[in-house]
Amino acid sequence: MSSLRVSWLFLRMGVINELQYRVNFFVQLLQSLIQVGTALVMLALVYSHTNALNGWTQPELLSLIGVQVLLGGFIHTFIQPNMQQLMQDVQQGTLDYALTKPEDAQLLISVRMVRIWQVVEIISGVILLFVGLAGVESSIGVGDAIAFGIALLIGGVLVYCFWLVMTTGAFWIVRMENVLELFEGIYQTGRWPVTVYPGWLRYSVTFLVPIGFAVTVPAEALTSRLQWPTLVFALGFGCAVFAFTRWFWHFGLRHYSGASA
Amino acid sequence: MSVDVARLPEAGRWRSLYDFYLTTMRTAIASQLQYRVTNYFYMLGMIAEPVVYLVVWTTIAKDQGGAVNGITTGEFAAYYIVWTLVRNMNIVFGAPFWEWRIREGRLAGDLLKPMYILHYDLAYFAGWKFVVVVLWLPIAFGLSAVFHPTLSPTPLEIVVFICAIWGAYLVRSMFQGTIGMLNFWTTRGAAVFDLYMATEMLLSGRLVPLQLMPEWVQTLANFLPFKWTFGFPIESLVGNLSTRDLLLGLCAQALWIGIGLVLFKVAWSSAIKRFVSVGN
User: Fold this and answer.
1) Which residues of B touch A186 (CB under 8 A)?
2) Nearest residue of B to residue A185 by CA position?
3) Mean pLDDT of B186-201
């Protein structure tokens, strides 16, 4: 309960802080429109040369892009700002302020920041998702919707874990800011179903960088492609990765000597 | 803000400039070689983009019997592998970094230096390129082993390519610098920068080879600077451009460098009048 209360408090503080900069909403809106526009142009170009990409029709792929944009919005709103703050704290020695507080350090460094205007991206993703689904021929059952929700939740946890593991590397390699470029680059692979990629890349973006689970699995649920064993496996994988991330965070923390002491 | 700065002596000016570029480039190489891991992170993130495009178009080409609009899978591989080098050469002191330079108070210090502001960025990023190319080589070998590019350039094409990637670097530096001047008027230029980048992506050959774009897009691209920073350097090595087209391409780059420089100078002289610096 204490964790939830702390998270809720930080969320409120973050929102209040961001609401001071209302023009950022319009900036973010324009940025989202540009992002979505570019994705749609690429989609139109691809489907001007083919009817289906590895069995995925244009509306189905639009749904997948919707999931990718939606999850991207979640990352930019909640995960990325916290991880960037963590990297900066390690560089400047200010992480001590978080470590000396009487609350779980991992929780604190994960909920301190929120960029609420990035929710525009989440809304854009939801719109794309619904427009795409409207064009999909097969109907979506309650089971599909539940599976989608579970898969999306697991996807969010996996992406958080990936970010934290990479950022924990800052305890050894101080200049980690380019990890953002690395993630943004690799995240673009999520704009297409992982089945398109050759084996080595498919496994890399499924297990090493979990974009496959995070984006394709939820989209598969909505397009009636998902098998229940895959979802169960994803759940187990998500739990294992979360446990590893927790261990790795503590392992990294033991190597942090601080800079302000 | 007006600052009296020591000017370089007219005699030996070019020699001083040459020494300055050489020293700054050496400094950049020494500095960037220390950050190999972070440089690799950056490069790996960057190569994800062309690999995705390559895989998608290869899949479509295979479905269509081996080619899309006459471009075979091997030619797609060559295009996007050369893309990775061109993209790395196109890393410049981008528009958003001007915001950082102003916010962090770096510009005040830079203004006290005796040379034109562009020289510092051009020299440093040019030196960085040598580190980038060395780090890029294993990635290129790896991608070639996986995707089997079709590439058989002539000596002339190789020479033009080497000139074209440096030309692209200069074109992009000028235009990114000009857009960066927007930071003197607003701290919320991010959306404008994104719009510029999206336009570049669509009209440069960065997203797809321009041959795959509609006819009117290809025509429009000929009259804008973007194509000369991505499409032309890549095509000069992997395409079958005639000698005339190769030389015309280099002339077009020279023209856009000139236009970009004039635009930057005009924007800079107007922007710097708005700059106010405080501190000790």
Assistant:
1) 44-45, 48
2) B45
3) 85
Amino acid, single-letter form, for residue B226? F
Q: For residue B208, give the 3-state DSSP assignment.
A: coil
CB contact under 8 Å between B60 and A182, yes or no, is no
- Chain A residues inside the 8 Å CB shell of B35: 175
Provide DSSP, A76-138: IIIIHHHHHHHHHHHHHTTTHHHHTSSS-HHHHHHHS---GGGHHHHHHHHHHHHHHHHH-SS
Q: Are A177 and B38 in contact (CB under 8 A)?
A: yes
| Contact criterion met (CB below 8 Å) for A53 and A61 | yes
Q: What is the pTM of this model?
A: 0.84
Whether residue B44 and residue A185 make contact (CB cut-off 8 A), yes or no, is: yes
**Interface-testing mutation among B73, B100, B194, B226, with chain A (most A C-beta atoms within 10 A):** B194
The residue among B101, B259, B57 whose CA lies nearest residue A47 is B57
**Confidence category of residue A261, pLDDT binned at 50, 70, 90:** very low
* A35 shares contact with chain B (CB less than 8 Å): yes
Could you tell me the two tokens for B245?
Answer: 């087209």
- Please tell me the distance from the alpha carbon of residue A60 to that of residue A140, in angstroms, as a whole number: 12
Query: If contacts are CB pairs under 8 Å, which of residues 64-103 in chain A contact chain B?
Result: none
Residue in A65, A59, A192 with CA at minimum distance from that of residue A133: A59
Look up the ipTM and state it.
0.80
CA angle (A119, A120, A121) in 5-degree steps: 85
**Which residues from A are below 8 Å from B195, CB to CB?**
30, 34
Q: Which residue from B168, B29, B44, B77 is spatially nearest to A187, judged by alpha carbons?
A: B44
Residues contacting residue A152 through CB under 8 Å, at least 6 positions apart: A67, A70, A71, A218
Chain A CB contacts of B213 under 8 Å are: 45
Query: Å from B40 to nearest chain A CA?
Result: 9
Give residue-wise pLDDT tens across range A46-90: 998 888 888 889 999 999 999 999 999 999 999 999 999 998 888
Mean of the per-residue pLDDT values of chain B = 89
| Distance to chain B for A30, nearest Cα, Å | 6
Chain A residue with Cα closest to B38:
A178
**pLDDT tens profile B88-143:** 999 999 888 888 888 888 888 888 888 888 999 999 999 999 998 998 999 999 99
By C-alpha distance, which of B41, B40, B75 is closest to B57? B75
Mutation for testing the B interface, residue in A23, A24, A27, A28 having most B CBs under 10 Å: A27
